[in-house]
């Protein structure tokens, strides 16, 4: 898969660029021409003088590997990112020629970024760092700002909300209830319990008549509620048998 990513067109461009900078011929085989590291070290010295102080021209393997290692170190000191560098065996043993090609292209881009003039337009310039300096007052003002990354409730605001615990009147315009008289009134659009309405409900604590429809008991008024609605003043139903008729009345209404 790595071999399939190798670009012959980029190889031709790199060949032309290296030969134009160094003035030396690589030869017909790109890998064999760079394997000993001599031309690469000459290239590095052209881009940054004296970056490779010793170039071994011996045919021994360890001398050639030393040249490649010195070239890679020189690329790092030239300012290239560590991820763009290759290893000596990637070129010496043809282990990963794709990475070698990527590294040389990055080297050409770094040379272009540093203002190196060449007859071959190759490589992409590195992005320049844009540094901004702010005064002390600006920095202190920024400490009072909380970014949206801190979390929002879909940009909702609490404008006009009353303090927590304040008694509020709920109204619904659809039921012909008068509009609010002050800011302590909140419409049902502010939030509902699954669209439930409080129309016809009595205030908390109001005495209620409880009836059971199964026994034929009639409701006395709108304040009557079935047993399913809850309990009468906290009374429990311990010992009761569901289904039997039971009437609880209030002399005030019945």
From TrEMBL:
GO terms for molecular function: actin filament binding; calmodulin binding. InterPro entries: Calponin-like, Calponin/LIMCH1, Calponin_repeat, CH_dom, CH_dom_sf, SM22_calponin. Keywords: Acetylation, Actin-binding, Calmodulin-binding, Phosphoprotein, Repeat. This is Calponin. Residues 8-112 form the Calponin-homology (CH) domain. Thin filament-associated protein that is implicated in the regulation and modulation of smooth muscle contraction. It is capable of binding to actin, calmodulin and tropomyosin. The interaction of calponin with actin inhibits the actomyosin Mg-ATPase activity. GO terms for biological process: actin filament organization; actomyosin structure organization. Belongs to the calponin family. It holds the Pfam family Calponin. GO terms for cellular component: actin cytoskeleton; focal adhesion.
